[in-house]
Amino acid sequence: xxxLGIAVLLTASVCWAQDAGDFKPATTNxxxxxxxxxxxQGRAEFRIKAPDASKVKLNFWxxxxxxxxxxADGFWTxxxxxxxxxxxxxxxxxxxxxxxxxxxHSFYGGGRDASMIEIPEAGSTYYSIQDVPHxxxxxxxxHSDVTGTWRHAxxxxxxxxxxxxxxxxxxxxxxxxxxxxxTGWIRQGDANFILDNLVASGKCKPMLIVMANGYxxxxxxxxxxxxxxxxxxxxxxxxxxxxxxxxxxxxxxALIPFxxxxxxxxxxxxxxxxxxxxxxxxxxxxxxxxxxxxxSYIGGFxxxxxxxxxxxxxxxxxxxxxxxxxxxxxxxxxxxxLWIGVxxxxxxxMHAGIVRLHDSLTEAHIDHVFYESPGTSHEWxxxxxxxxxxxxxxxxxxx
Length: 399
Hints:
This protein has nine helices and 19 strands. About 30% of the residues lie in helices and about 25% in strands. It has an eight-stranded mixed beta sheet, sandwiched between helices. Strands 4, 5, 8, 9, 10 and 11 form a six-stranded antiparallel beta sheet that branches.
């Protein structure tokens, strides 16, 4: 009986240890913060001190909403079920007030700074910092006559840019999504590490990546009052169209000339690409198809051809995009790459719309690449994977 009792205790200890997990502080924590923590199963454990609070809720924007439990020491805790790999926006709701987690770094998304937690993807190192030569991310300011303002952008320069001073580079203009800004592809997307690793492995051409703010308003135009105007209303749609047109003009008339003047670029369409996620994908299709004299590589990450995708209709190659797709052979000679991607778990309308666009392009015999990110939704892990697939296809010799 004594041996049996010891065996039971040992078994219980092992089960407890397995259940406790191998939690470690998340890589998105502020310095020395021990919580939130993540284990190898993808579970996340949270802890916040709010001794005078009566109710605390953990609020993932695209995931679980958990009531936290108050402990005797005044801390509130909660542990999630396994989360899909990647970055997750979240906030804490303390007695009805939604706040950021002071233990986590904040990232700009949803039109504000919010907490985020990184759930590692097992075996994936393509977006991690590795022992390879690294490029640099530079901040630039350029004046835009379109907006009448100084505008901010980030520019990734590949390894060796400052030492190989006679070398010129192709350029990828890479856009963020709605509610985000020009910092997103670096802070959330790790685009610099993705390119560092691809270039080091020989899978990708060295290139500049330019990341600009996708929100633009034409000089002298007042901010529209959209109070009480629902999404989809004529007033809302006009405001969005005006902003999209202002951004298009800013890119083509101010940003690209600035980059070509201040960086060693190949200033021609054969060495210029544009891609973007969600809203940025919609902007990409508008800018590039309006200016095929300037771009020959096009990528839409969960947002290609927005009005068509969200409008529940198929492509008409004879009329859409100014008829650029009416002659598949001519389009293939002019555009070196047309790329569209979507996550398999994206919202139904988005996923169905992108698949429908892919099917329409296939039926119209338009050469293109279609990629589905397995198991991911409208989130940064989808777009990291998109960039990993898209970038190696750029600026390669014609087959």
